[in-house]
Structures are given as structure tokens and as C-alpha cells.
Description:
Layout: E1 8-12, H1 15-20, E2 35-40, H2 58-69, H3 73-81, H4 88-95, H5 97-100, H6 104-123, E3 124-134, H7 136-150, E4 155-162, E5 177-184, E6 195-196, H8 200-206, E7 209-211, E8 214-220, E9 222-224, E10 245-247, H9 251-261, H10 270-279, E11 283-284, E12 294-298, E13 305-306, E14 310-311, H11 347-357, E15 363-366, H12 373-380, E16 384-389, H13 392-402, E17 418-421, H14 427-436, H15 438-448, H16 456-459, E18 467-471, E19 479-486, H17 494-506, E20 513-518, H18 526-529, E21 534-537, E22 545-548, E23 550-554, H19 555-559
Parallel strand pairs: 1-16, 1-17, 2-3, 2-15, 4-14, 15-16, 19-20, 20-23
Antiparallel strand pairs: 3-5, 4-5, 6-13, 7-8, 8-12, 9-10, 11-12, 18-19, 21-22
Helix pairs in contact: 2-6, 3-6, 6-7, 11-12, 14-15
Amino acid sequence: MTQGEWKNRLYYGDNLEVMKGxxxxxxxxIPENEIDLxxxxxxxxxxxxxxxxxxxxxAQAEAFEDIWLGKSVDDTxxxxxxxxxxFDKLYNLIINLDSWAPNKxxxxxxxxxxxxxxxxxxxLKPTGSIYLHCDPxxxxxxxxxxDAIFGAENFRNEIIWRQTSYNKSTxxxxxxxxxxxxxxxxxxxxxKTQFSPYSKAYVEKSFINEDSRGKFMKHDLTxxxxxxxxxxxxxxGIDPSKVGRHWQxxxxxxxxxxxxxxxxxxxxxxxxxxxxxxxxxxxQWSKGGKGTPQYKFYLKDAPGVxxxxxxxxxxxxxxxxxxxxxxxxxQEVKWLSSTRYPTEKSEGILSRIIRTSCPEGGLVxxxxxxxxxxxxxxxxxxxxxxxxxxxxxAIQVVENRLNEPSKEHHVREVLTPYRVIGxxxxxxxxxxxxxxxxxxxxxxxxxxLGGYKPSKSLIGTDKGIDGLIPFSVDGKxxxxxxxxxxxxxxxxxxxxxxxxxxxxxxxxxxxxxxxxITLEPFADRGRFAGKLERVEFTPPSGIARxxxxxxxLTIDEIMNGKRPEYPDWGYRGKKPKDRxxxxxxxx
Length: 587
């Protein structure tokens, strides 16, 4: 597919299944060996908002396997075994996990990540790069996996990003950084060096000379070592061989000469090049014309200092760097003082990575795209993109973000159209989603109705609760509409309706209304409703209104715009802490 035919893609689904192309048409599959840059920030200890923080809990580990893997660990392990010949080091690591993984949760996590990294390796271009963002509790495990899949020889950097200014810790040094592991697929990869601005102190100390073209510093016109060719000959009475050096004009001089004259300096013999450089004033002699000549390097041409492997915003250093007087050191990668989404990252991090490792017009891929920082920055810098997230709400957030100004760039220009793949747009699509992934279907329908997925800690031992829609008739006491989703083709059974009625009966103040969502119609409701049939709520107007305590909606009705009936005159209650627990990975 040519770049002109390309449409950016936003997938709703399990990224492992999407990368494999499960349930996708050929034209919707992610192209193999065509991704220029992969950035991922997979959930782990830094992703506490994902309900996947499980230091030693077997129960939470099982929930992790069920929710995030979308299949059992054994099934995912079988996927890895199928790649045994190609990734033999990885295979040996994984089959011996029991001997070195500290608990079941980390074992499940590493198996999940190994399966995904295998697919990412397959999709990446030979000249492509991958940046894996993680925190210190996971970085050492992930580096082992990356070494086994991408090769230790293709490890380029562990970038340290300062994520905050201070972390109070009474029994250890405060952790204020995260790691970004940078690997390439081969030794021949795209990398465009980026530069940070000089400090004002450095400029004042080094660019102390000035002519009509501006301030400049002097650099050696020679390089170490004796040469026998033209570069070792005498020029203007100076013999570089006597001091063990040779003439070596910097590439900067060739560019500067062409800028000043329009001519290509390289077409001339070396000693004539030196004469031409002197003629246009690019060579500086010491007073009296004695000593070894040097060349002029102008401040206006200076790109700055190449970025190193520590990215650390330094508050309180405004005015220390050249450029904007309000900027501090490493201002671009400043941490966010407030976020609108769990684990959201600064756009500056992605700006730096994308400009470095993806050519303009290249393809960027984020398999845990979350709130869409990666795809938003890719848009800003004229790159094509692919994003995947496992939650319906995250897809909505990304779409909203693509149509609003960015926090850091203020202008949003959608360069190319994009498609959302995997999100149901009609009842047929909803049924297909229910068949292929029960959890995705439940998440999607709950969020579509304006609800959220509660954690087990919030709902306690109540069963049959797949989602909650909070409301309050007095602005104080929170009540909830209980959502129970049944994804089987045959519709709900009588016992499932009875289970929902039981939840309402067990706590009528907390759960006054229940809704059963089915794929197909379910007619016989009355004999299970009993005395729960109606409940009244009085709005601020003072006129009581009755609502059915047990309601049912089919997928066809929902896709045609029908919604649950419950008091909707304004919810002002406090949001539960885990209201966004199921939003999925990001950044």
C-alpha cells in the first residue's frame, strides 16, 4: 500500500489478536515489516490504575490473566512455543520461569509481554526501532525479553526519564525516574540526531569571537595522525605532519561554503579548498599570521548539544538555556503537573522519540495507545500511525483528542483520514464482538450506556454485576443502575434474570434498578419481577416518577438509540477511585 492510499488506523481490541490479524479482513491487517517506529508503555507496576498491580496475590494474578491476556497463560505459552526455533533463547527463558520469576503474577506478565514482543518484532521494519517505556520494577525483566527477541547486539540505550521532582520515601532513595528501553531490529536503522539548546553559560564562554557574520568559536582545521596525500602537505608554510596531524576540513565548512557561494567545495583538490575557505573568511589566523590556522564555527549555525540518555527536566533553571527565556533545562520532557488520563505522558517524550527514529511520512505504532499521546504527536509531526487499545473509553478519548488542540503544540491538523476498526457500528458488529471476545463486548456495551466497570473491591460479593451507572436524586447518596450483560446467542435465561433480581433485592438502596442486556429478545420477565416491578424517585420539581426496577434491552434496541430509564437529572456524587480502572494502557 502506498503512502498516498494509507489511512491511519485505530483498533479496538486485544493487541495480541489484532497484531496476529485474528478476525480481521486482509485489508485490515497490520502490514508486516512496514512499521518504522514502535512505542509502547505496557501496564505493570506503574499502571496501578489498570487493576493489574499484584505483588503477591494469586487471585489478582488470575484476574490479570483473565482480563489482560484475554486467554489463559497456557494458551499464550503455546504461542511462544510455536516460535521456538526462531527465538530459542526466549523459549529457554520462558520454560524456566518457575525457577526465577518471583511469583505467578510476574510469570503471567512476562508470558503476555513475550507473546506481544514476538509479534512486534515481526511487524517492525529492518530499519525500524522500538522504545519500551517502563518503570524500575519491570525494566530488568523486560530487558531480558528484549535481548532474547531483538538480540542483545541491537540494544541501543536505556533512557532515563525524570518523571517527577520528588518522591517521599523513608526507607529507600526516592524513585523519580522511569526507563525507556531502546532497541532496533538490525544494525542498519534510521536515526536522526536531535539537539538540545546550549546553556547560556556555554555560549558566553565559547563563542567569544565575532565578525560581520556574527559570533563564532574557533575549531581545529587539522585531525590527528600523519597522512601521505594532499592532506599531509604544507599549506601557507604550515606543515601539519611535523606535529603528527593532517589537514581535515569539517563537513560544516563544505555546507557553509556552498551557502555563501553556491559552489561545491569538494570538487577541488584539498589544498585549493583551504585557499577558497580562507578567501571567503571562514579561516581564522592568529595575530601576525603565525601558528596553525583554525576555522570559524558560527553560533547561528550551531544546532546545540546532541541528546544523551538522561532526559531530566530541571525546575528552577529558567533563563539558563539559550532560546526562550522562560524555558528550563530539558523543558520539552517536563512531567505533566496534571493528567486527564491514567499514566499519560508528556507529548515532549514522544516528540523526541518520533523525530529521532521515524522519518517524515513514516509509520508509528503504539499497541497500548491509551489516551492517544503517541498518535496525536505522530499527527503533529507528519507521520502515519496505528494505535490499539482494549477499552471502548480509550478509543473515544483518542478520537476526541485528534479533534482538539494539543496541550503543547496548540494546533491540531489531521493530516490523513483514519479508520476505527473492531468497534461495532451496528447490531451485527456487536454480535460478532460478543462471539469473539466476551470481555471486550462487556466493556464496550457498559461504556456505551454511560456506565463503568466496577472492581471486585467495590461491589464486594455481589454477583451478576458487569457494570454500574451511578446517579443521585439528592446530590448526596449515590445509587446505581446495575448492568448485567449476557452475550449468548440464545438471549438470557430465566435464572439469569432471577440472579439480577436477587442483586437488587439484596441491596435495594444501593441498587434500585437493574438492566439485563441481551443479544436476542427475552419475553418472559413478569413472573420474576414480583414486588420489584416499580420504584419511584422524586426529582427537584417535586413530581414523583415511577421506573421499572427490572429492565431489559437487546443489542438491536441499543443500536437503534434506546437507553435505560433511570433518574437522569444530574449526578453530583463522588466518583469511585477505580471508576477508570479498566481504561487500558498508555501512555
